[in-house]
Amino acid sequence: MNPALLSLNQAPDISTPLKYFVTAPVFLILACLQLLYYGPDILVNSWEPAVLSIVHSFTLGFISMCILGALFQLIPVITGDYLRHSGLTSHLVYIFFNLGTLLLILGFLSELTIFHKLALYTLIPALVLFTVYILLHIVRSQARSATASGIIFSIISLCIAIVFAAIFLTAYIWPDMPLLRQYTHLHILWALIGWVGFSVIAVSYQTIPMFHISREYPNTLKSLLIRIVFICLTLYSINQIFEFNLQTLNRLLLLTIFICLSLFSLTSIKLLISRKKKMPDTSLPYLYLSNSALFVCSILIVLSLFDIADLYTPAIMVFLFGLTLPVIIGMLTKIIPFLTWYHLHRQFNQSGARIRSIPVMNNIINLNHSRLLFTLYAISLFSLLLTLFNAYFFFYLMAFSLLAFSITLFFILIRAVHIYTAFLSETPKSTSAA
Length: 434
Description:
Blueprint: H1 15-38, H2 49-79, H3 86-110, H4 113-141, H5 146-173, H6 184-212, H7 219-241, H8 247-273, H9 284-305, H10 312-351, H11 361-364, H12 367-386, H13 391-433
């Protein structure tokens, strides 16, 4: 990892990513409360409106919220070019994205057309504004790093997922429009593998070497992996939309995708094992688990492709809760303490004030709190997997442990914000007294 490739001085104000990070657990709590309200019967039909509400509370409200905040923070750092009007743009995206997500959830729960219509008019513009703003910035900056190009592919994938989402929403709003439910799996593939997966991979190219002092990812992997997966997703989608019915090609394309993802996961685990930083790190269990889950998910998909077993549902569950959730929590537990520490240092260096004892990163997120958070997550993940065998017996253990995990995460993030604001409010008195 070459720190010279990062321009930390171009980082936006800490409030830009932090408002996304702190809000995200609220939607996770909302998803858990819905699980508890509807009970295990909700697992019977995946097309129930309540199921769609829970899924989008998790994928839009939590996962995408965290990715949006991370990209607003990361883009100027990796491009070396300050995000113009980032404060205004991030606020607009934040407001309309939150409003649109809530309206979408209300639309599913109430089945009232007006909420879906309002969601279409708020959520889609928010995502379009974000995609255009970020893509224009990357193109203008002429950044050539693997992370920058990976983010471009992730945002293009988001645009494709948005198109499918808009088609489905219009069918809810205007019944005369065809629902085109046969393309739901394309929406899922572009949203999960393209938008979420590419974002995770691209960010990992920077964060794992930087935070864990490991070797860099191989250049060949960084330059080819996301491109190959993107091409395979594109060809698969064309084959499905135009109904060429080339089943062998479909299997080959999906097999290639998950071989590439497995290669990334194994490489990440190898880099983490051989890392130079050997100090205890609370984010490491999340990273080991998420990359192991990606490998397991790939195996499940391959078994399904060759009709050995129907494992698509477990594969999606492993991808969402075994890969995406822990990698985001691992990211948050590293980025938030670093941002808090860095912005406090930068603020006092710029002001010329004498710096008191700025909180160290390990104190911003308490080690005991981190261990509790991981324990609750492990219980919720294990019980979620057990629901595949006995949904009624393990459902409430999963729901309550996931709720406890969500509340603990929210508390940890609020505590970090309090440490930051409290230090700022107390320091002027200390410096003036000195």
